[in-house]
Amino acid sequence: MKSKKTTSSGKTPGVLAIGAHPDDIELGCGATLSRLAHNDVYILSVIMTSGGCGGNSTERYEESREALKILGCNKIINLDFNDTKLYLQLKEMIDSLERILATEIPSDVEIMRVYTMHNADRHQDHVAVYQASMVACRHIPQILGYETPSTWISFSPQVFEPLEENHLEKKISALSKHKSQSLRKYMQPEHLWILAKFRGQQVDCSLCEGFVVHKMVLQEY
Length: 221
Prior knowledge:
Layout (H helix, E strand, L loop, with lengths): L11 E8 L4 H15 L3 E8 L7 H14 L4 E7 L8 H14 L5 E8 L7 H13 L5 E5 L12 E4 L2 H11 L13 H14 L5 E9 L5
Parallel strand pairs: 1-2, 1-4, 2-3, 4-5
Antiparallel strand pairs: 5-7, 6-7
């Protein structure tokens, strides 16, 4: 039986995953979350909008919850900020994230890492989420930016998460729940495999997800 990992304060390690829209988290760090869940890391996911500009809001809400449950997320919080207009709601997003960190984390869990959007993203909502994350999560030791299709031109990862095939399969299964987005090329399994293989090849691994470092306080071993 494997021993349960704890932080230096004796708590269960946790991560916070933040996305602007339904499917952002799954696309950017879905396989990594599956791997962390397998290792008993507590996972809290926060989606800022219902994604109404990309489909029916209620439908997308349900899709995201089904998908994130497949990945092993312990708690899923769907907020209802205005899709495509998050840059106008920066303070409100910061307030919401700070409130979530203060009230929604179990007392025996310590959030050690944040997965959020990349600051060099061409989607205005994604940049706004990055900005809100950096302020609201300023006391968390590690903040990593994940890859989405709207970052592909400029994305240059510095940190790589090695993956087993079953973690990538979980990501693909999760994304298959987003039926409203199923015709988008980047949602197709072959594209997801190609990207994971490419990121893995960059660091001599089989499969990887890549991340940029927004903040990294190294932990003692």
